[in-house]
Amino acid sequence: MSIDYSDIGRRIRYFRTSKQISQEELAETAELSVTHISHIETGNTKLSLPTIIKIANSLSVSVDELLCDSIEKSKEIYDNEVSAQMEDCSVKETRIISEIVKTTKEALRKYQ
């Protein structure tokens, strides 16, 4: 098994931007340099376990949420993300999203 640091960086950027946190703010709370955060988010550097923990704590997410693309049992994490996105949807929005998911799933399975 290999670790894709670009995927980890993408997830860090996703959580940081979704919480409207700048790279500077994340660097400060995680006690890292802005340059290091930038390199992590672009996958241009490997990061240590202590660094991953600092970033996870600063973003108020679990380490497995940052590493889920490298974890074999990550389906539950993605299921939780989908559920979180659906929490504030109206019935109409939920129905439309459900149809989109169904159609997308069928297309993915057809062309795999």
Name a few traits of the molecule.
112 residues, mainly alpha, 434 Repressor (Amino-terminal Domain), 7 helices, 70% helix, globular
Describe the model.
The chain has 112 residues and is an all-alpha fold. The chain folds into 2 domains: 5-70, lambda repressor-like DNA-binding domains (434 Repressor (Amino-terminal Domain)), CATH 1.10.260.40; 75-110. Helix content is 70%, strand content 0%. The chain has helices at 5-18, 23-30, 34-41, 49-59, 63-67, 75-86, 91-110. α2 (23-30) crosses α3 and α2 (23-30) packs across α4 (49-59). The longest helix is centred in the C-terminal third of the chain and has 20 residues, at 91-110. The chain starts with a helix and ends with a helix.
CATH class of the largest domain: Mainly Alpha
First-to-last CA distance: 22 Å
Query: What low-confidence regions span 5 or more consecutive residues with pLDDT below 50?
Result: none
From the 3D coordinates, which CATH architecture of the largest domain would you assign? Orthogonal Bundle
Query: Helical segment tally?
Result: 7
User: What's the alpha carbon Rg, rounded to whole Å?
Assistant: 16 Å
Say how many strands there are.
0
Q: Helix/strand-derived class?
A: mainly alpha
Helix content: 55-70%
Described by the principal axes of the CA atoms, the overall outline is globular
The CATH topology of the largest domain corresponds to 434 Repressor (Amino-terminal Domain)
Tell me the major beta sheet.
none
